[in-house]
Write a structure and sequence with these properties.
By secondary structure, the protein is of the alpha+beta class. 58% of the residues lie in helices and 9% in strands. It has a five-stranded mixed beta sheet with strand order 2-3-1-4-5, with helices on both faces.
Length: 316
């Protein structure tokens, strides 16, 4: 087992006298034993930390209270009210789990370590757990409560500093609402995870984002598998003809832009960087495929809802 290296400053005779060689060997042995001791202690501490997290996330009666007592024994304060934040690298989940190269894993570790450091500067009483390629943060709130906007801005600065110091792997953060009691930890954790996952969907290619649960709006209703099945059926009913015809996504992009531009065709052409006649031709095709969605208010509302829900089906 290789634990490290020994560096010696100064000139050394070659070969080394036996006394100096013995001294180096003894020093290396002592250092190795100390490192192994610290590593063992760290592993035990990590095991207890994991037990605390498992207890907080458990739905078993008494599990949260046992976790609180274990945390108190370790001198870890879990005082409410609090937010839960989830920090993760800006990579699709499948890529995170597929990482094989040691250098890539090390780079992600570096980003999470930096995030932990800067969040601790922001809140010295924060508590951290490592969960795979994610960092779970218990973010207690004491004294004057910062507004959601203030907290999002502060965490956004954390993301920016991580990106500056380790550009290879930026991170984004999902943030739960304020939880009043420790028994709400599991709910807050799920909200933070949902914020991170759904926020990435609706913000497409954005990196270094902080997504608060409150900002998800109606998308919070569609996070379960059962709900997503309903979303898929709804989107197929509304957008099916367009999705089948639009192989390269050009018409879908035109439709989104047209609605974003207040159904102004000239501004749509400018936003897309295409000729006005090209935009008019695409709109004519859209009208043919989607029928009365542009003229009937209730149908247009349904169309816009389907467009907002569609990205939920395009993850992974």
């Amino acid at each position: 087992m290789e634990l490290g290296e020994i560096l010696v400053w100064g000139e050394l005779p070659s070969p080394l006298p036996s006394a100096q060689m013995v001294a180096l060997e003894h020093g290396a042995t002592v250092a190795a034993l100390k490192m192994m001791e610290l590593r063992a202690l760290s592993q035990v501490e990590q095991q207890f930390q994991n037990e605390i997290l498992e207890g907080l996330l458990s739905d078993q009666p008494g599990a949260v209270e046992r976790a609180r007592k274990l945390a108190a024994q370790m001198r870890v304060r879990l005082d409410p009210p609090f937010h839960v934040a989830v920090v993760a690298p800006d990579l699709p989940v499948r890529e995170v789990f597929a990482l094989q190269e040691r250098e890539s894993r090390s780079s992600i570790d570096t980003s999470l370590h930096l995030a932990r450091r800067y969040i601790r500067v922001l809140n010295p009483e924060a508590v951290f757990w490592r969960q795979g390629a994610r960092l779970i943060v218990f973010f207690p709130v004491r004294g004057r409560r910062a507004s959601k906007e203030e907290l999002v801005r502060a965490l956004k600065e954390v993301c920016q500093r991580v990106a500056q110091e380790n550009p290879a792997h930026s991170v984004s953060i999902g943030l739960s609402p304020l939880a009043p009691e420790l028994s709400h930890f599991a709910k807050a954790y799920r909200a933070a995870m949902q914020s991170l996952e759904l926020g990435r969907v609706v913000r497409a290619q954005a990196k270094g984002e902080v997504i608060a649960y409150e900002d998800l709006g109606f998308l919070r209703l569609f996070s379960s598998q059962e709900a997503l099945e309903g979303v898929a059926e709804f989107c197929q009913e509304v957008l099916g003809p367009l999705l089948r015809e639009d192989r390269n996504g050009v018409l879908l992009l035109t439709l989104r832009t047209y609605l974003e531009q207040g159904q102004n065709l000239r501004r749509t052409a400018q936003a897309l960087g295409i000729h006005y006649n090209t935009a008019r031709y695409r709109l004519r095709r859209l009208r043919t495929l989607l029928g009365p969605a542009f003229t009937v208010p209730t149908a247009r509302l349904t169309l816009e809802l389907a467009l907002n829900l569609l990205p939920l089906l395009q993850t992974g």
